[in-house]
Amino acid sequence: MADFTYDGAPAAPVTVKMASVANWAGAAVSLALIAGIAVWGYRVVARDVSGVPIVQALSGPMREAPKDPGGLLADHQGLAVNAVAGSGAAADPADRLTLAPRPAGLQADDVALGVLTPDKPVEPKPAMARNAEVIALKPEGAPIPENADPKDTGPFAALADEIAAKSKPLSPLPEGTEAEVVTALASALPDQAKPELYTGPGLARSLRPRLRPAGLSATARAPAAPGAAIEWDSSKPVNEVDPDTLSAGTRLVQIGAFDSPEAARGEWERLDGRFGDYLAGKDRVIQKASSGGRTFYRLRAHGFEDLSDARRFCAAFVAQKVDCIPVVTR
Fold this sequence. Notes:
Keywords: Membrane, Transmembrane, Transmembrane helix
Strand content: 5-15%
Strand order of the largest sheet: 1-3-4-2-5
Radius of gyration: 56 Å
Shape: flat
Low-confidence stretches: 217-234
Largest sheet: 5 strands, mixed
CATH architecture of the domain at 240-328: 2-Layer Sandwich
Pfam families: SPOR
Number of helices: 7
Helix content: 25-40%
GO molecular function, one term: peptidoglycan binding
Transmembrane segments: 21-42
CATH class of the domain at 240-328: Alpha Beta
Domain SPOR: 245-330
Oligomer: single chain
CATH topology of the domain at 240-328: Alpha-Beta Plaits
Order of helices and strands: HHHHEEHHEEHE
Structural class: alpha+beta
């Protein structure tokens, strides 16, 4: 018989085993991840349902003193008496005692005032004494009496006569004419002199304040007594604007609210006596309104360019403790 050889079954490749191991490991990691997410989600839901979460405090002291704080030590530290105030009981006896420093002694010049000897007076120097002498001046000759004639004053009269002799006498003026005094400025100022204009930085011409309006009364009016009835003076012309004719967005200033139009006009006249400069050129507006079943009349001023102009107007009234509110028509 012929001899037959039999080989064993071929072994599985190594790469196939490694792939299966990786697949199983990935599946295990995925299951663990899914389980962890499920547990975490359950804890989150359970915590929100249970109420306010409780935060666990960290372990260890909240504050710690530094090992080397630095700085300077305060005086009188380490004394036994300090332990009584700090801990409430006396401390143990100290193992080492340190004496206090010796007190500062007195100097040689630290004596009583009665013991001090006065210093010797300093004698002035001869040169200073000579300069300090006072010499009385004596008039030369006899003094001039008070009732003496000016012509008999000696040298003064001779000097006056010498000056008069050298001067040219003036010609007399005819009777009934007076000399005209003419001041010549031609030599001092040139003809057609013009001021030199400033060309540097800043204002070339200074600003001037506006003139007072011609129609504004310059007489001061006496303020009305508190509690007195205010009457409206209908003789004074005031431009009153109908509130229905004003367009939406018009800048106004509300001064107050009153029970009747006459009271509002009287308040305008009273304020015109106090703030005439500010109310000049402003129109009066009386608007009827109602609130809570009550009818009242709003007193407003018209004639403002913008909100800033209205605020400046109200600033003057508020400074005098008068109600003033910028408003806009709707």
